[in-house]
Structures are given as structure tokens and as C-alpha cells.
Amino acid sequence: MAETEIPDSMKILKEWWGRLSTLSLQFMKLIGLGLRLKDPSYIANSHSFGSSQNESAIRVNFYPATLNKDLEPGQVRCWEHSDYGSVTLLIQDSPGLEVMNRSTGEYEAVTAPPGGIIVNIGDVMQFWTSDTLVANKHRVLVSDDKHLQEADRVSIPFFAMPDQTTLIECLVGRSKYPPVTMHEWLKQKIDSAFKERQLQ
């Protein structure tokens, strides 16, 4: 993002990074308490944001207005997926995110109240909790609402990722998955994603 296009953009993003990383740690501590872990801070402490061992990221997604564009109904703007990390905090300036209802397999629009933040559980958190918490698939499609088509859309996700050296193992219930380091886990997920895309 060029400073000439959005003055102070890096300063603003650094401020958002600080706020969202702090909020994500608080949220993960609450998860630890809810799961009655021996050390409720264990999950949060596995994230040293800003260190060379941590690949957490903040992203700015820009979706241009689509009104009067030659697009197919229901065209995908961001394909269905689940996030690789622990949790994702999402800020969006207008509706667009859809989350799969696991009971029906149908996608449903998700919005937050004004000033609210959407929280997605990531794949690593599902692993840590032996599927007690599930990483739902989500996507973004071209809206069929003319009012939404007229405006650009911006979303800002913060992806919280455990440190690369963290051993990911089941923390509750039975050991449903074999332990693996975050580095190897991420490599496996990226390799799998590329293979899926090649088959499509």
C-alpha cells in the first residue's frame, strides 16, 4: 500500500497490528479458560507477535465496485477456505463474508454490529482442541444487492499464527491428530492448497 495513495498508511496499519494482536491474545486466553486448560495462557503464549519465528499477518483486501461489470451471478471474489492459524479477527466496512452452516452445507452471510469484529476459528485451533472448536469454511461472492454493488468494499483480516517452533498437539480430550510443529503444519497446508488448485 503506497503512502502516496493513503497518507500515513503504514502508521495506521502498525496501530491496527498492535490493537488486533493484543485483542487476539485476550481472546485466546479466554479460550484457554473455557477449555479448562492446566495453563489457560498456553495457547496465547505460543504467539510471539513480531518475532522472526512468527508469521502472523495483517492484510488489507480491496474489492472494487461491481455494478455494471460483466460478471456471472454468484461469481467468487474469494474462494471458500478455512484459515490456517489459530484465530482470525476480521473488520469489514460492508457485508460480504459468508460462512458455511455445517448442519446444512449452505453458506450464510455474516455481519458484525457497528464497530464489531468477526472472529474466525482457524485450523490450528481446531487441531489443538481435537475438533471441540471447528474452523468453518468461508468465502466472499459478488453481491446480488445493487446498493452493495455500487460501492467498493474493504476488509482487514488479522491472522494469528503460532510460532514456527510451536509443537501443535491436542490439548483436550483424546489425541485425535499426531503432534506436528507449526512450521511443518503450515508447509503441509500450503502444499495441499496448491495441489487442490491444480486439480480445479
Describe what this molecule looks like in 3D:
The model has no long low-confidence stretch (mean pLDDT 87). Helices cover 29% and strands 22% of the residues. The protein is an alpha+beta fold and 200 residues long. The strands form three sheets. Strands 1, 2, 4, 7 and 9 form a five-stranded antiparallel beta sheet that branches. The chain has a four-stranded antiparallel beta sheet with strand order 3-8-5-6, with no helix packed on it. It is built from five helices and eleven strands.
A few lines on this structure:
The protein is of the alpha+beta class. Helix content is 29%, strand content 22%.
In DSSP terms (H or I, runs of 4 or more residues), the helix count works out at 5
**Radius of gyration, in angstroms, nearest whole number:** 18 Å
Number of strands: 11
Mean pLDDT: 87
Largest sheet: 5 strands, antiparallel
Which descriptors apply to this entry?
200 residues; alpha+beta; four-stranded antiparallel sheet; 5 helices; 22% strand
Write the layout of secondary structure elements.
Elements: H1 9-34, H2 42-45, E1 57-58, E2 61-63, E3 76-81, E4 87-92, E5 97-100, E6 107-109, E7 118-121, H3 123-128, E8 138-141, H4 146-149, E9 153-160, E10 167-168, E11 180-181, H5 182-199
Antiparallel strand pairs: 1-9, 2-9, 3-8, 4-7, 4-9, 5-6, 5-8, 10-11
